[in-house]
Amino acid sequence: MASAVPKACVPVAATDPLYILYTSGTTGQPKGVVRDNGGHMVALKWSMKAVYDVDQGDVFWAASDVGWVVGHSYIVYAPLLKGCTTVFYEGKPVGTPDAGAFWRVISQYKVKTLFTAPTAFRAIKRDDPEGKFLKDYDLSCFKALFLAGERSDPDTLKWAENKLKVPVIDHWWQTETGWAIAANCLGIESMPVKYGSPTKPVPGWNLQVLDGNCQPVADGDIGTLAVKLPLPPGTLPTLWQNDDRFKSAYLEEFPGYYTTSDAGYIDEDGYVYVMARTDDIINVAGHRLSTGAMEEVLADHPDVAECAVLGVADKLKGQLPVGFLVLKAGATKDHDQIIKEVVASVRERIGPVAAFKTATVVDRLPKTRSGKILRGTIQKIADNETWNMPATIDDPAILGEMEDALVKIGYAKARV
Ligand code: AMP
Description:
The chain is of the alpha/beta class. 26% of the residues lie in helices and 22% in strands. It has ten helices and 18 strands. Strand 16 (304-314) and strand 17 form a beta hairpin. The longest helix is centred in the last third of the chain and has 15 residues, at 335-349. Adenosine monophosphate binds at residues 23-24, 69, 148-152, 170-175, 198, 260, 262, 274, 277, 370.
């Protein structure tokens, strides 16, 4: 390093590859998403003002891992393209040392906008439900919180709004897209928040909800969320050394569209609702049901910090939903009573067709390092199918805990 001499910049074509990033792979085989240079720069720089309402000179903090897409796009490229200060944070929202860590960093570095995953806020809410740590810091610099990476359950979102007193914006995107498909674009016009919705498609995205025959469905009906081609700048041009898989995974199911493989609907006001991966729509006795909608009901229970619902094979009904509950610190109510209450709430709010009767309390849920619950893997364990350890898993030991929990409620096979 001491003898190195500075080198000039190397010009590249707009279409040259910039990086390859593997998707988190909750279903097994990760895909190598390729990003290009030109469109990516345009989209990211534009998004800083339009989506996040951030200007040159502002301090932007994406509390993500730099190795994930949020880190690539919004720790590194976008803030620097916009001329912002970007915060690199090595730590967790809780435990390093406490649930006030985010507030400390915001006040110390005068962060205007924080972008993180809902799971981070669930962890903070779990450790400090009253938000006591907030009182120790001056957050007058702080203007907005953005959440993405998974569905923002309304309970967590409202908690963040109440405690922080700034707009809390759920927005939806994928490694493949590199930036938001749907958001409440604070820098264009902030729209009323509808809980459970990441608001509307961002300019550049012609988002449609399609049925199995590639036809748009009626407002409010669930289908596959697909983007009419052409895709906007910044999105993936291909998969690394695998054009065929790029076409088969994203372009072939609905000719003329990019499929997000997310299921959801658009309401009569044009608000988008992302309910689950299309794989997470379960079929209970012929009714197509969203496990995301059931999770929303469970998350509303005052003692529940986090939850997951997935469909397990059932001889009679095809599939049946099973719920996993992680309770808030300090929850003292009897577990059986909590389970009874959530079963009753699902029956009341979604209906008896959901056939939601089985739930269990666990200490924690298996996740990828980016915070996504490994529903596909839990389901395979429950159904006694062969499964591979996901490459992106955060803590492999938790899968053993899930297996034990499943055995207790009559699923999976006891390990020998
Ligand atoms: P990844 O490529 O690992 O970033 O995962 C992208 C997937 O995460 C999406 O296809 C959605 O299933 C999910 N996701 C991301 N953001 C949201 C959101 N705001 N609401 C619901 N699901 C989301």
